[in-house]
Every structure is written in structure tokens, then in C-alpha cells.
Predict the 3D structure of the following.
Amino acid sequence: MLVTTPYEQANSYVTYDDAVSFLGQRLYSQSWLRTPAVPDAKAFVVDGTWPAGTSTIPIREGSGTFTAGCTIEINALSYTVQTATVVGATSLVVTTGFSQTVSDGTPVIRTTLSPREAALVWASHILDQSFDWPGYKSKEEYKLRWPRSQVPDPDGYWYDNQFVPEIIQRATAELAMYLLGRDFSRVPAVVGTGLKRGSMPGPFAMEVDLKNLVGMIPPYIRAMLSKIGTPYGGAGGMSFARLYRT
């Protein structure tokens, strides 16, 4: 699931709702809007007490949608949803029966991310791996690299070391939308920076052109963060170097 707090468990810098709000303030967000937003179920609990072996469970109180094949967690145990009805008489059918008795009000935690949520998680980790942030993590136990202490904002004041700055949240949402519109796994490239120009052994030679980089972080997002952090490996941060057959 998407987690922004507590920071010791966070996998994203921005909540889904805030990402929707930020991206709704820009002119163009087609790659985000055309990407599925489900499964998006949250805050459901078990309705009633059910013995071990039960496979169809009523649920209540939550909102959103489960999808067939998504995984849920109940009492720290994982189950796969076969079918789900969340309109009217809400219920879930799981692939195997409960391993233990489940009490009324037990949280039903969706662990499968929607494509949009997955993009937010990916974007958060790419930013952390691509930028040298000033200062230091406010707590060593934080899973991501923000919140941080001793980081000045563009006006010379200190960012609050108990929260993730809004600019980081906005940049995460923007990068998530950018990633949704591209499949970088299909780019014919060498991952990383600092590669040396040279030929590769084999029946033909290929040369890495370091002047022609396919950046995973586009210029407008790097500009957003330019007064906070410095991209590793130069202006492109994490990037791909195109390969040309010679």
C-alpha cells in the first residue's frame, strides 16, 4: 500500500489525494488521467467475527474498490482476493480461508498498489537515488531521505525537519506522471552516468555517446529542485546513455 507516514515506513513522499490535487492544478496531465486508479480500496474493516476457514467475508466502513487478484492483509497475514463486491452488501472472497479467527472491526489492508500509486513510489525512490540532498535525515530510521534537518529553503529559512517540503511532494507527483507516460525498460540504453566512451567486443562495435542522454528526470522537474538538491552525475541525475551501432 502507499505509505507516507509514519516516516519509518514511508514509501512515497506524497499522498495519493495530494498528488491528485497537485496534478489537477496543471494544464496537461493526460498520462496520469488515462492510467487506472484502481484498486483503491482503503479503510475497510471486517464486519463481524469469523472463524478460521471462512473464505467469504463481509466488510464495512471503507471506500474505493478492490480488484480480482489484488492482495490484502488481515492480522498480518496475506490473502488474494478472488472477487469483490463493494456496492450494497459489501463482501470479499479470498483464495483460501482465514488461517485464524478474525474479530469484528479488524482492518482489511490492501497491499496491491494501483498503477498511479506504484508510479508515486517509483518516483520517490528515483528522486532519492538521483539527488544529493543537503543536510541530513532527521531520524536515521526514516525509510526515505526526507524529512531532513539543516536544509535551507530558497529564501534562506530552514525547512521544517518534521515534514516533507511541499516542493518535494509536488516534484514526486510530477515525476510519477512523467514516468507513467514512458517505459524506460524499453529504452536501448546503458543505465547510469560516468560511463567511458569505448567499443564493446563482438561482431560489431557500439559506442556510448555520453552527450546524448535520455534523462529519467526531465529538465522542468530538475529546475523545481535546483535550489534544494544537486543531481548526482551532473545535470541529468539518473539517466540513460543511448547506444549507436557503428
The first strand starts at residue 44 and ends at 46. The first helix runs from residue 16 to 23.
